């Protein structure tokens, strides 16, 4: 499902190091902090408004500095940050006027904006990353405006169509971000741009060259900001993406045999996954209580009906713990294939560990030899995969 993005596209991680205290202690006493950043701005329409600089942490946002603008909207904020990182500049008490700032100690950031367009059209100067942010905002502002129009189509077109239009609309934003990260890997604003290179909708259709870009940024950060927690956090995130992508490739190569499953149907009959050899099988991990699963079920029914006579079937594995609700959902959603199984252990089932998932719906596509040829296929991506198998 598409999430409505009201301001900046968020980076791929919440930077935990920003949660560290902004002061150190020696023998229980606070050292005097030395001012190491300045943010000077003029925001028309924001007279006598409090501006907050906040550090983002896993424990919540931490106030770093604040200042009140004069009657014309001019302000000058001076304070101390513990190091390079992702912060946010918030205008007023609400949460609708926020922009990310990737401050580095000794930055002198200048900002000019209008109150109404503070989050979509701020003009930055004075830092290494200001020009990159301005360029990003030029393409993001168009995306932001058109996305609002696109969201008006919700409910009028299918989720797949909405996702397709959203992806096309977001493409220029992603292209700019990836180009800039490639040109200047050490740029601090890459903390924000990094979201464009991550596989937010899974690896199906994701460009693996994005991983190379993220690795370049991580390597540059390790050199430029050696010892900084931001660099370590990014390096770990990129490593996790690499591991997940390698696992995805292994699970899509047709070389790995799907672990066998032997569970009972609603009628108490044991149905083995291996008994379906000779067909393409979609192993569909779901549950009656899982809303996204139930929303995806009509698509699976449609595809099963279309390809069941061409050697395709579905093997549904429920993570329910209530037999009555499981059976009722099968009937209500019209899941007409015969292969329904469950151990009724919900997340205590060994299935998540056996197949390496921690959320549902989760799908695994198996070829007639019992080998995995795809994972995480849903909606349009599942349909396209079946078109490639049965219609080309």
The CA-CA distance between the termini, in Å, is 29 Å
With strands numbered from the N-terminus, the spatial order across the biggest sheet is: 15-14-13-16-17
Low-confidence stretches: 1-30
Number of helices: 9
H/E element sequence: EEEEEEEEEEHHHHHEEEHEHEHEEH
**CATH homologous superfamily of the largest domain?**
Carboxypeptidase-like, regulatory domain
Helix content: 25-40%
Computed over alpha carbons, the radius of gyration is: 25 Å
Task: Spell out the blueprint of helices and strands.
Elements: E1 25-26, E2 29-30, E3 37-44, E4 50-55, E5 62-68, E6 74-79, E7 87-91, E8 98-101, E9 108-114, E10 123-125, H1 130-151, H2 159-183, H3 190-193, H4 209-224, H5 229-252, E11 262-264, E12 270-272, E13 280-286, H6 291-307, E14 312-318, H7 323-332, E15 340-342, H8 351-355, E16 362-366, E17 372-375, H9 379-390
Helix pairs in contact: 1-2, 4-5, 6-9
Can you tell me about this structure?
The chain is α+β, with helices and mostly antiparallel strands. The chain folds into two domains: 16-20 and 32-247, Immunoglobulin-like, CATH 2.60.40; 262-390, Glutaredoxin (3-Layer(aba) Sandwich). The protein has helices at 130-151, 159-183, 190-193, 209-224, 229-252, 291-307, 323-332, 351-355, 379-390; strands spanning 25-26, 29-30, 37-44, 50-55, 62-68, 74-79, 87-91, 98-101, 108-114, 123-125, 262-264, 270-272, 280-286, 312-318, 340-342, 362-366, 372-375. Strands 15-14-13-16-17 form a five-stranded mixed sheet. The chain starts with 24 loop residues before the first strand and ends with a helix. Helix 1 (130-151) packs antiparallel against helix 2 (159-183), helix 4 runs antiparallel to helix 5 (229-252) and helix 6 packs parallel to helix 9.
């Amino acid at each position: 499902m598409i999430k409505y993005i009201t301001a900046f596209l968020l980076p791929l991680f919440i930077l935990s190091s920003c949660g560290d205290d902004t002061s150190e202690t020696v023998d229980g006493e606070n050292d005097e902090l030395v001012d190491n950043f300045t943010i000077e701005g003029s925001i028309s329409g924001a007279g006598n408004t409090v501006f907050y600089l906040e550090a983002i942490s896993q424990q919540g946002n931490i106030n770093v500095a604040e200042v009140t603008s004069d009657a014309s909207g001019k302000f000058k904020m001076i304070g101390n940050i513990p190091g390079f990182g992702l912060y946010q500049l918030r205008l007023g008490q609400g949460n609708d006027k926020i922009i990310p700032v990737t401050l580095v100690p000794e930055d002198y950031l200048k900002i000019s904006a209008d109150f109404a367009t503070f989050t979509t059209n701020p003009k930055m100067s004075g830092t290494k990353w200001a020009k990159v942010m301005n360029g990003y905002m030029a393409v993001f502002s168009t995306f932001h405006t058109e996305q609002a129009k696109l969201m008006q189509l919700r409910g009028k077109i299918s989720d797949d169509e909405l996702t397709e239009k959203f992806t096309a609309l977001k493409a220029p934003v992603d292209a700019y971000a990836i180009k800039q990260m490639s040109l200047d890997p050490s740029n601090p604003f890459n903390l924000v741009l990094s979201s464009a290179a991550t596989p937010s909708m899974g690896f199906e259709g994701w460009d693996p060259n994005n991983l190379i870009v993220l690795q370049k940024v991580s390597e540059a950060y390790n050199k430029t900001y050696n010892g900084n927690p931001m660099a370590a956090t990014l390096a770990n995130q990129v490593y996790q993406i690499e591991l997940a992508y390698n696992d995805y490739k292994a699970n899509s190569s047709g070389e790995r045999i799907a672990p066998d499953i032997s569970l009972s149907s609603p009628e108490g009959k044991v149905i083995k996954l291996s008994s379906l050899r000779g067909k393409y099988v979609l192993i569909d991990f779901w549950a009656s209580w899982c809303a996204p699963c139930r929303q995806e079920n009509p698509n699976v029914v449609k595809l099963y009906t279309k390809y069941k006579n061409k050697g395709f079937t579905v093997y549904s594995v429920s993570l329910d713990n209530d037999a009555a609700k499981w059976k009722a959902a099968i009937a209500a959603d019209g899941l007409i294939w015969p292969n329904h199984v469950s151990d009724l252990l919900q997340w205590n089932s060994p299935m998540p560990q056996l197949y390496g998932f921690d959320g549902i719906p989760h799908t695994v596509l198996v070829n007639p030899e019992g080998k995995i040829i795809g994972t995480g296929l849903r909606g349009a991506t599942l349909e396209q995969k079946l078109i490639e198998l049965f219609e080309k």
